[in-house]
Amino acid sequence: MNNNIKNEIDNLRELIRRYDHEYYVLNNSTINDFDYDLLFKKLEQLEKENPGLISPDSPTQRIGSDLTKKFNSVKHEFPMLSLANTYNEGELFEFDRRVRENLPAGEIVNYVVELKIDGASVSLTYSGGKLVKAATRGDGESGEEITANVRTIRSVPLKLREVEGGYDLSRIEVRGEIFMDLESFRKMNEERAASGEKTFANPRNSAAGTLKLQDPRIVASRNLDIFVYYLLSNSGQLQKHSENLEILEKLGFKVNPLHKLCTSMDEVIKFCAEMDELREKLPYEIDGTVIKVDSLSQQKTLGSIARSPRWAVAYKFKAKVAQTKLLKVTWQVGRTGALTPVAELEPVFLGGSTISRATLHNMDEIRRKDLKTGDTVFIEKGGDVIPKVTGVVPDTRMGNESEISEPENCPVCDSRLNKPEDEVALYCENPVCGAKIKGSLIHFASRGAMDIEGLGESLINMFADLGYLRTSADIYKLRDKAEELIDIERMGEKSIANILNAIEISKEKPFDKVLFALGIRYVGAGAAKKLANHFRSIDILMNASEEEIEAVPEIGPSISRSIKEFFSNPLNIEIIDSLRNSALNFKLGEPDQMEKKLFDGLTFVLTGTLSGMTREKARDEIERFGGTVVSSVSKKTNYVIAGESAGSKLDKALQLGVEVLNENQFLALLGEKL
Prior knowledge:
Blueprint: H1 3-25, H2 33-49, E1 73-75, E2 85-86, H3 89-101, E3 111-117, E4 120-127, E5 130-136, E6 142-144, H4 147-150, E7 171-179, H5 182-194, H6 203-211, H7 216-220, E8 225-232, H8 241-251, E9 259-262, H9 265-278, E10 286-293, H10 296-302, E11 304-305, E12 308-309, E13 312-316, E14 320-333, E15 339-350, E16 353-359, H11 363-368, E17 376-382, E18 386-392, E19 417-418, E20 427-428, H12 434-445, H13 457-465, H14 482-486, H15 493-506, H16 511-517, H17 525-535, H18 538-543, H19 546-550, H20 557-567, H21 570-581, H22 593-598, E21 603-607, H23 615-624, E22 628-630, E23 639-642, H24 648-656, E24 659-661, H25 663-670
Parallel strand pairs: 2-13, 21-22, 21-23, 23-24
Antiparallel strand pairs: 1-6, 3-9, 3-10, 4-5, 4-7, 7-8, 10-13, 11-12, 14-15, 14-17, 15-16, 17-18, 19-20
Helix pairs in contact: 1-2, 12-13, 16-17
């Protein structure tokens, strides 16, 4: 092998790594895009001509072409514990008291305060200075390997820099938070909405969901980023967390500059307040700060309790609040015909986005909060995601505000509205109301119902406006219109092929999903499953009396009456017949008695986020094998299945001694029956 070529390749790699570090970590590029691309292409060409010199840590090897069929489970060498939360200054002082009580008297305690980035926690393992493994947090003990996806993130170094000081960093584990900045999140959702795809609720969900994609090439296009916050090593040379953050920067990692070493809890609280003020101006989402004891020997002395370290705590910021004018109230019509009042607001910037609308739920809520048009109101971003009006700002009324009244006619089709005696909502009873039609179609294709991937709200609205969709049965006739759909602006052959394939796959959904998808008022996913299991077919359910329907456990008069009204409408029967002709499942097969015995009589609780399946899928499998899923943990609970970011239900299970399964253990319990 020509040593000159090898040296040239090595030099190019080091040069590109330096430019990547400047651009993606330091945000300070010293080379223009054109010159950078020339260097990169030159390296690619040399490696192509000399494949024996390609190494995994080369900048050209970030994005693999192979699809990941399975994310393997990996055990963390050091458990990834979750943090206990605090919400006020008193709780922080209490944390400080506990820390000092559990350390030798008189020891000086310093704290490091860092931003709590709202993203997805990951563990990065480096051996010999090269990235060898990346894993999700999982249940804290084990996670899923996502190395191929993490390698695509340019701020994650594939090869570490040299660090002076004589540290043994031959094998280290680095913890960090992968996130998507607000601008990237906004652009991605705009693109997804334009193509009819489902949008993400918030940047955290987008980051976590992207890391679980099977194609690293798509991950690479999502513009993920990382801040690292912890360094672990068995060398014994590391002394302080604050010094470790400096070492991580020198190694080439991206460390958030907004952290501070504090010598007292008063100083901690002051810095937390400063960060709370600053968060509106940050280009990424945070939901608080993390306070850590600086000394690593003190961290070791303090240890952990249950699943949380005694040496660290999260300080959660209060919900974001702003004031603005309530300009008017408009009314939205849902798929069942129910009207929801929406506050049209004077635009106000809150929590990283401009808020101009917020739900008011119903007229009872409007009256309870004594809202009037023209009021100055408090807007709160609940959970930092969904805006809501929480009340009127006291002493701001000028006397020119006006009462908010209920509409008499549907704002979409102008039909007369109806208000049932025992309900707070108004209803449009017109079966061909445009808003109801679109709402029903969106519900039918939604994740909890037929789960037709790619057929989202914006695409359904477009197809309905163009006349392709009037009822849910029309979805299964879109294949006959394929050539016309391809000609629609922003669509194309591949997009339409994917949607039609997803529609075809949805025909495999079981009877209870189809029943839920029909959109019968009051028949939620749980009720649909109970009805499907009891009556076994749509025909038996259609012919059942109200008394027979109410005989099903947890099915009351409102549901039975609604079901009878639904099946008395000839249009609904016509839709069902058409769906039946499209080969949808309107009956259950005979239950497998061996399946029923697997979880027969067992009670489960689901908590946290499962990576390999949705919570809904896990519920389906448990119920399919005879088990019962409940919402709260008690001594009678047999198993708690804990996914990532499991909350108080996991704590209660540990207190009561209920057996806890992580996702992999649950899958093992299912065995080959899945």
